[in-house]
Every structure is written in C-alpha cells, then in structure tokens.
Amino acid sequence: MTGTALSAKDAAQKARQARAIRECLDRHIPACQPVALLQFPFDFNVGNHMMWVAAMDYLKERRVPIAYTAHGCNLDLKEMKRAVGDGTILFSGGVTVSRLWPRHAEVKRLVAEACPDNRLVSLPSTMLFVDDEDRRAASTIFGNHRNAVLLARDPVSAESARSVFPGNVQVEAVHDSALLLPPQPRHAAPDHDIIWLARDDMERVGCLAPTGVEVFDWVRYDPAGMRILFPGRFFSRLRKLAPALRSIANRQITRSYDRFARYVLASGNRRLDTGKVLVTDRMHPHILCALRSQHSVLLPDRFGKNRAVYEYTGRHYSTVHWADTPEEALDIAYTVARSTPI
To answer: What is the three-class DSSP state of 57?
Structure first.
C-alpha cells in the first residue's frame, strides 16, 4: 500500500523550496572540489538522518567528491585536511552553534582554527542561544576565518545569527535541507487515528501529551541499526592505523554512514505509518509528514524553533497545521482525522 501523492499545490511548493535550497548550496559548494562532511549523527534521531541523507543525495547528484566523513568523536583534523585538500568543509545541520548541543559548536571551533584557508559551510540550522553568555561564546566559534558561511533554516534564525557573529561570517536563510528528499510513501494502513510524537529533552516545553492517544518519541536505540554501523567503526580504526588504506577507509566509512542514515529514515517512515494524523513538538516530523502528504499538527518547542520554521516553510503545505497548546492540537487532529480518508 502506498499513501496519497502530494497535491499539485503542495508538490509545486516543495519544488520551489527544494530549488531554492539547491541554488543556495550551488553558490557555496563548488562542484569541482572535494568536500568533507562532518558531524554525522551517531544516534537514532530521524530528523538528523533526514538532513544527512538529503546532503548525501545532493552531493552525489552534483557529483561532488566526498573525500572525508566523520562524527564528533572520530574526527581526525590532520587526516581530514589531507583528504579534502583545499576543498569545502561542510557541517551537518541542526541546532549547532550554542551550548544546547555543545559538541557541535566545539567541532566548528576546532575546524575553523585548523583550516583557515578552507571554505566552511554550516548546512541549514537553527541558531538558538540560551543567554548572553551563550551568545558571546558563539560569536568566537569561527574566529577571524575569512570564508565561513552559516545557513539558517528560517529568517528569525538568520537575524539571530547576524546579531551574534562578526561580519567575517556570512549568514543566509534557506529552507531546511530535508526538503531536498523526494516524496516519502506510506507503506501500511494506520493503526491509530492520532499518534503523538513528544520530545523528551532540553528543547521540550513541558506540556504533557493527553491520554488516549499513541505517544512516542522517534529517538529509540535499535540494535539492528547499530550493526549497520559496524563497518564504519572498523574502517574508522583502520583509517588511523593504516595510512596506506586511508582512501579506501574513507569510502567505506561514508557508505556505512549512508546506509545507516537511510535505515533510520525508513524506521521514521514506518513509525509515522502507524497513525493517520501526527501531533508533535519536534520540528522534522512535520517536514517528513509534508513529504508523505500526511496531516500533522506542530506544537511549540522551548526556544521558538518550531514556530519560526513553520512560518517560513511548513505553513505553505495543506497538510501542516499549527497549535499553541496540546488541547488545541488534539481538537485539530481529531477534526482532520475524521475528514481524512486513507
């Protein structure tokens, strides 16, 4: 079974947004030079892997050589510089410049210091800052680097970043890179009218999901998925121990990461298959629903990320709805579920 295709209006909107993302990336990523793609999400957060798969697909489509990939703990700056030469260094998107997720900011700082002559491009992200101390620390991440580009996934984030980073850091707003993914099909009939994907980390507001609906989060450890990463872990060690095999190791690591990211994305699709309508306070599920032509109701997060992305990207889709409270979200979800055939 496959789900309903995107409506003509939604398909046109997605095409416009994807075209804007490609044009933006084309301006900042030369097709003829190798790249390093950093901050692989060594986790089961489906949204992180949506961005990784989208970046990989874009680079392959444009035939940009991927010379080096790494996550936050196996990054070897010397080996990365050897592999990428004078090519572009890419940082995967997310919330990546504040102390909310400090390892992301630390990696950017280390790379900026070690690679003053490489172009640095941070793929579409939300620029969240907890307080003035966080802003001061973030403003120094890229130092005096002369060729650093921050892509913000909404204008609010872009303005926030411009107020924090010095003039040598270029900031540009563009839609989240997950919109580069193709439409995602439904493969099974839903078990529930409403499913409620509730985050359980520092970005949650604290509102409780109601009783009587299927509640879950999509960051779940999966032993089968971890087995897909075994080759990547093996070749990460080999990359350090056998210099003559570094090029082979880099290719195998990239393949392992790619397989794992697509596995996690498929698991997210299977989870969304269980419901007719999704309610969530995570940002990426509503984008995945838009790609599936599945109705979703988006709730606020703690820092305003969801609302900013909704206004810039999500609200243009006929299947995306906004609610300020769980009670309002439940009302919208039940109304939509009653009127939506599968």
So the answer is: helix
